[in-house]
Design goal:
InterPro entries: YdjM-like (IPR007404). The chain has helices at 4-24, 33-45, 55-73, 82-106, 117-134, 139-162, 188-204, 209-215, 219-250; strands at residues 165-166, 171-172. It is an all-alpha fold. It has 2 domains: 4-52 and 111-250, no CATH class; 54-107, no CATH class. Strands 1-2 form a two-stranded antiparallel ribbon. A hairpin with a 4-residue loop joins strand 1 and strand 2. Helix 1 (4-24) packs antiparallel against helix 2 and helix 1 (4-24) runs antiparallel to helix 9. The longest helix is centred in the C-terminal third of the chain and has 32 residues, at 219-250. The chain is globular and about 55 Å long. The protein starts with a helix and ends with a helix.
Length: 254
């Protein structure tokens, strides 16, 4: 699979392209682009959350703990004293960083259900709900936040699959097909649990009709978005052109 630095670099490229494309198409204001870009990058690192020994995963849980701690304490500033807020913040952080992390690592397997379409859906819907319920974002902004997390997540899984191809020895590695799969074929209970989580998150999510209406682009918006996509594809081909030519020779596309 690709290493952390590769996932980070490609995640930055994909998130920048998606954010700029949405902005050029007039779907997001310039003031939101930095936050959406950050969400895309975070999403590109999330699939490796089930890797118990990864240093980035430990860092991710630290950031997640701090973020949730702030999200839970900031609405309470009018009800508690500074010392009480500090104790609440520390308690939430420790629960997430050490308690939730320990439980999570015991019940997850690397390249399991988190490396699947269900993982993309769960994290995207979770981001949408967090943006709407905790950060008081309007439905359109909340769904766009979920979209960016999903784009980053999908980029990570695609990259893992690409690195499962051994171009020099013209063979597919055993890991091929374990990243970008509909669900975990080896652990049906995990897949059913993740599906239940997705259903619950979809039920809690804000109404998406207004957001879908905004995505119904007119011809001018579509042309601007398509031009942005073409520019990003050209950049990717410039970087990975030789790699893709080898892949085409290995796996004929018919």
């Amino acid at each position: 699979m690709a290493n952390f630095q590769t996932h980070l670099n490609v995640g930055i490229l994909a998130s920048a392209g998606a954010t700029l494309g949405l902005h050029v198409a007039g779907l997001v204001p310039g003031s939101d682009t930095l936050a959406l870009f950050a969400l895309g990058v975070i999403g590109s690192l999330l699939p490796d959350i089930d890797s118990d020994t990864s240093k980035p995963v430990n860092g991710l849980f630290s950031v997640l703990g701090a973020g949730l701690a702030f999200a839970m304490t900031l609405p309470l500033t009018d009800r508690f004293q500074p010392l009480e807020l500090t104790l609440i913040w520390v308690g939430v952080f420790l629960c997430v960083r050490y308690g939730f992390f320990e439980i999570f690592t015991r019940f997850t397997v690397h390249r399991g259900v988190w490396h699947s379409w269900l993982g993309i859906a769960a994290t995207s819907l979770a981001a949408t709900n967090i943006a709407y319920w905790m950060w008081d974002q309007p439905p359109e902004s909340a769904w766009t936040a979920g979209l960016m997390v999903g784009i980053g997540y999908f980029t990570h899984l695609c990259l893992d699959e690409l690195f499962s191809v051994d171009l020099f020895n013209s063979r597919l590695k055993r890991s091929f097909g374990t990243a970008l799969k509909p669900f975990s074929f080896d652990d049906h209970w995990s897949s059913l649990s993740m599906l239940a989580v997705c259903v619950a998150l979809a039920w809690m999510a804000p109404d998406a009709h207004s957001w879908m209406d905004r995505l119904d682009l007119d011809s001018a918006q579509f042309d601007r978005l398509a031009e942005g996509v073409r520019e990003q594809v050209s950049a990717v081909r410039l970087v990975f052109g030789d790699w893709f030519s080898r892949l085409r020779d290995l796996i004929p596309l018919g």
